[in-house]
Design goal:
The protein has one domain. The chain contains four helices and no strands. The protein starts with 9 loop residues before the first helix and ends in a 7-residue tail after the last helix. The longest helix is centred in the middle third of the chain and has 13 residues. By secondary structure, the protein is mainly alpha-helical.
């Protein structure tokens, strides 16, 4: 699936993603880190990568999803993937 990033607000996405974290464990969760990896791929042409580099952790410390329900980073990711940006 290809995302049209021209109408996506990267700073807003990163702010939403950072603000979605409710536990310290979230920073190292595959849900959060996976979304960062997707943003890096989608925005590689237009993104100052140091913005994302500040949020990434080394792969050895990433842990599996803890099964939080709801998973706030996953909710932000779902909104990102939605054509209207609202997850609807």
């Amino acid at each position: 699936m290809s995302i049209d990033v021209s109408n996506k607000d990267l700073k807003g996405l990163l702010d939403d993603l950072k603000n979605s974290l409710v536990k310290d464990e979230c920073w190292k969760c595959e849900c959060f880190q996976g979304f960062l990896a997707q943003l890096e791929l989608d925005f590689e042409e237009v993104l100052p990568l140091e913005e994302l580099d500040k949020l990434k952790v080394i792969p050895e410390v990433i842990h599996c999803c803890l099964g939080c329900d709801p998973c706030p980073p996953a909710d932000v990711y779902a909104r990102y993937l939605a054509p209207d940006g609202k997850g609807e």
